[in-house]
Specification:
With 221 residues, the chain is α/β, with parallel strands linked by helices. Helix 4 packs across helix 5. The structure holds iron/sulfur cluster (SF4). The site of iron/sulfur cluster has 14 residues, from helix 1 and helix 4.
């Protein structure tokens, strides 16, 4: 996956990061960012796409930017992360029973992938879910983009998605039965942890922690 070059616009953008005016004086990852966390996790966190100077720089999901700072603080508070701060790929961070993945694996301009780029990247998300299928019980979806990208993949991966497809919202909870006799999966909607939401108070630490506490309860059920 880290060698993928299927989206020319995103390849050019991710590789330009280290030369942009905001760039940090360090080596950039500048490739697709893989999932992070144990492969037998019961909880998934589905984001949007890497930030250009965040995980596109560090090479690990939600690591090295303000969105990640907010998210890891909440994960640590509820016992799903070993540390409250994530700064680099080798900072010793461990996730417990939780794996992060993004529907689009390369940083997009203005954090806005096109529908074509989302579709190009869908097979990588499908593989991630295939990996998690035996253990996955809950998925916390950060924002409407992730929600819309995830539902068709779940449908193809043995979970029954209602029609019309349920709409994203913070606090929305959706239980999907398995079509193959396996365990059901519960989706939990959560506003994205971007500064746009956290700086304005639209999303607070407590709100994120509550969602992850609910995910833990679902996984234990
Ligand atoms: Fe490949 Fe996904 Fe990156 Fe597009 S966004 S180049 S499909 S890894």
């Amino acid at each position: 996956m880290v060698e993928c070059r299927r989206c020319p616009r995103l390849v050019a953008w991710r590789e330009s990061a280290a030369t942009q005016s905001r760039a940090r004086a360090e080596e950039y990852w500048s490739r697709p960012v893989p999932g992070f966390g144990p492969a037998d996790a019961r909880i998934a966190v589905i984001g949007l796409a890497p930030a250009l100077h965040g995980s596109n720089r560090t090479g690990r999901m939600f690591t090295g930017d303000r969105s990640g700072d907010f998210l890891f603080e909440a994960l640590h508070a509820v016992g799903l992360a070993s540390q409250p701060h994530a700064v680099s790929r080798d900072d010793g961070m461990r996730l417990y029973d939780t794996r992060m993945a993004a529907p689009v694996r390369c940083a997009p301009p203005e954090n806005k992938p096109t529908p074509e780029e989302r579709d190009n990247c869908r097979p990588w998300l499908a593989q991630e879910l295939q990996l998690l299928r035996p253990t996955l019980r809950a998925a916390v979806v950060l924002g409407a983009f992730g929600w819309q990208a995830l539902l068709p993949v779940l449908s193809a991966a043995c979970w029954r998605v209602p029609k019309p497809r349920p709409v994203f919202g913070h606090g929305v909870e959706l239980r999907l039965e398995a079509t193959d006799g396996g365990a059901p999966l519960t989706l939990l909607g959560c506003f994205h942890v971007s500064p746009h939401n956290t700086f304005t108070g639209r999303l607070t630490q407590q709100m994120v922690r509550d969602v992850f506490e609910r995910a833990k309860a679902v996984a234990d059920d």
